[in-house]
Design a protein that fits this description.
Layout (H helix, E strand, L loop, with lengths): L6 H4 L5 E9 L5 H12 L41 E7 L2 E7 L9 H17 L2 E2 L1 E7 L7 H11 L10 E6 L23 E4 L15 H27 L3 E2 L1 H51 L3 E21 L7 H4 L2 H12 L1 H14 L12 E18 L1 H52 L5 H17 L4 H27 L1
Parallel strand pairs: 1-3, 1-5, 5-6, 6-7
Antiparallel strand pairs: 2-3, 4-8, 9-10
Amino acid sequence: MAFFNRLSWRKLDVEKEYNIILFGETGAGKSTLINYLTNYFHNGTLENLKVSIPSKYYEATEGQTHNEYNVQDASKSQTRACTVYTFRKQNTVYNFIDTPGLSDTEGVAQDESNIQQSMGAAEQSGVLTAIILVINGTQTRATVTLCRTLCLLRSSIPDVLLQNLVVVLTNCSSATVNFDLARLEPWTVPEANVFHMNNCAFSRPVSQWTKNAAMQQILKIEWKCSMEAIEKMIQNLKQLGGKATEAFKQMRINRERIKSQLQNILLDVTKCQDLQNELDMMKTTQQNIATDIKNYSDYKRSKLVEYTELVPCETGTRFCTKCSTPCQEKFLEKGATSVYRVATSIPICRDVVSLFEYMLLDTCHCGHSAFNHYVSNVRPVKKTKTVEEILEDVKNAFDLSTKKNEEIQSEIGNLNTDMAALEHALDAMQEEILNCCYQLKKLCSQFNFVDELHGIIGIMERDTCRLTSTMVRAEAETRIRNIKHVVDTLSSAGKSG
């Protein structure tokens, strides 16, 4: 504990040490209670007051470090930070932790800061003997500030320490008290742990009562009763077993984790929107590319091509080896054509005809000699066939569009993977938030989830309304509903409990 000065006591013979923390609303009398404790331990008297914390009419006399702000302004918490006031009696040390007042005029933000400081001080104490609630006993009704203070405390004090709860009702005696302890419900404080003290000794300067015998008599009686109440309280504190403050630490960890994960959800939902926007853009691009692929897919053209095919025949056909064309019908007379065909159809005759042509004919009409010709039992036949022609420019556009489509498809796949990973992370964060809520409920059955999470859930709902993706917005709204459902359920259970 950074603010616990134990070193000065280690040199002494200390058998026991008690840590007691004080809570209460602004003006309830925590600082005055510390001053009464100072007089109890330092043997102060009504005529010779010992002062640890300066007040409106009295300067500090004991040299104790304090964190009082402006003792002239009663509307604001004077204690600005947690301060430990250490007292020793015989071989026992008492550490009283004074905390900033709650529900002062500086609003909710200051209350949040003050309660966090107070819970941190309780956690750092390691072991707490008691939690003292300081309440103005003259209050006849539950004021707004008192209700606010009690709500903050119920939401901050773990159940394990409720058995060590002590109530000090100030500005009253057991006969004049107006405060109804039923207002603390569902907390129940045993009668033995409730004390009354009229701390009016510090509410006026000595000069106002020393010359007034009646007032002096009243103050002396009230002083005596208050000192007796403090004596009983000290004896009672010794009977309470100290409780480890690990529960405060666990509550803090869970609270911080809930807020951290809610903030992370806010950021990741925004990332989901960005990914969805990119994914939508990619799908639009893919649709355009699909149109291009369809348009460029007709890059083939069919056409009829005429060609000559040699087919077997009984009559021989004369071919030129130079120009690879049939020649006989072109250099023979028309009347001799049929005779020529009959003659060349017979192998032995064909050889004679060929020899004859070779010897007698000089050149063919094709311009090549008879030596460059031969006769074969095939004849040329003209035919047609359908062939496909590829339009290269169209095919190139088709191939380019296909390649782009593959690249876009790969990017879409990566985006879908990223979206799935982000959704998985969001699911894990939501699950952790819910688990932390349940853990908090176990630690502090009266924990106020509504007040704790109202602000950030409101921000989540506001930001969700701004999402443009219907799918992302629907998923975000579902997450918020799930968290709010658990919060409402746990809050209702706390009220009914």
